[in-house]
Amino acid sequence: MTAEFAPSSAPSLPLWLIRSGETGPVFPEQIGPEARAWAKASGFAARPGQICLLPGADGALLGALYGLGAAPQPGARPARERYPLARAADALPGGNWRLENVPDDLDLTTAALSWLLANYRFDRYKKAEPARAHLVAPAGVDEARVLAMAAGEYLARDLINTPTSDLGPDELEAAARDLTARHGGEITVIAGDELLAQNFPMIHAVGRASAFAPRLIDIRFPGEGPKVTLVGKGVCFDTGGLDIKPPSSMLLMKKDMGGAASVMGLTEMLARLGVTRQISLRVLLPVVENSISANAFRPGDVLTSRKGLTVEVNNTDAEGRLILADALALAEEEAPDFLVSMATLTGAARVALGPDLPPFYCDDDRIAGAIQSAGMRAADPIWRMPFWEPYESQIEPQIADLDNAPSGGFAGSITAALFLRRFTTGAKTYAHFDIYGWQPSAAPGRPKGGTGQAMRALLDALPEILK
């Protein structure tokens, strides 16, 4: 589906945005005494997300009031609900709506985006009720930017929500080719045994047991400027390999390509906004299925990576870092100014921070601060975690350079990040995002299912990162 605003020329109803004060709702002068009396009789207190429909004398709908709660105070904690107008999009009667009485403290970009994200539907397999209420782009909002962010999120959600029967390695490659063609990029794909010939042994090892060839997708855009490389984990399904997952742990493994989906969603945003003409953007997607067959890689195997580092496989279910390592090693050979990896990598990240707050890792304090601040501004929260040097010994086994799954069960997200960092030494700055890519239960603007993460944070932070 397409993210879009209602035409500004179309008839629309007013949605009055109302703050709450010490004595109740703060109404503008344009709200007459009859409407105020109706709102009071209806129990409207301008609580966040509260709606009061306004009837005319003939019973026709004249508009609606929408509560925003009290004005935020300096240093206030983040609101419980991330998207301020998402409830309006879900609850208002059908038709086109325009915003009135917009307070100066409301972030219009997030407000407009929240409506579009609430309008998202995944209806490939089951007819879904279409979005009923549509928003006219508010005056003063950067419409192109909001639409670009919504389009990137729609793309990421669609990819993650699609089951592996319809989005295996072949179909993910097709989606990458479509993205590249739409935005004027160039794409190269290395697949099957050619991965060995071109020195991507760990991508090959992880994916060779599948009926669908493993591959490395390499996308470039013709812009000039700082070198930015995005690497996304594309495990289209993860059985765990010979260290097979229990059935309950496989239920969501269609989302194990969430890193690739988020990288593609971010690329969609950058391309729509013309950023791909201002930077030298490269996108690398190692794409596999981690399956079981006679030629599956085994616990105890030692693999030699593209970088030449040897890796002892102590768990075949820690495969994402293996395929990312070969892709990151390729990326660092060009010494990018900013190198990013995004992956649904560890359950430890979810234990620490939950599904809604992905951790990220970056050694550069200035850039890390820019990313975390941008995440808060863009309603795309993330939290910095440390590359904790004392844990380096945990990823160093006795018979190889690295261990893909240290024993002990502690600090799993950190040790995974440390593992990946070993393959990025040629990059000027590296940041890793351990995302979840899934909304476990529906929330305003965030239906249950696939979700992009860290995309808008990076989009917003990029100008500061590349200073």
TrEMBL record:
Cellular component aspect of the GO annotation: cytoplasm
GO biological process, one term: proteolysis
Superkingdom field: Bacteria
InterPro entries to which the protein is assigned, alphabetical: Leucine_aapep/pepB, Macro_dom-like, Peptidase_M17_C, Peptidase_M17_N_1
Pfam families attached to this UniProt entry: Peptidase_M17, Peptidase_M17_N_1
Keyword Metal-binding attached: no
UniProt keyword list: Aminopeptidase, Hydrolase, Manganese, Protease
UniProt GO MF annotations: manganese ion binding; metalloaminopeptidase activity
Domain Cytosol aminopeptidase: 315-322
Keyword Manganese: yes
EC top class named in words: hydrolase
Protein family (similarity comment): Belongs to the peptidase M17 family.
Name assigned to this protein: Leucyl aminopeptidase
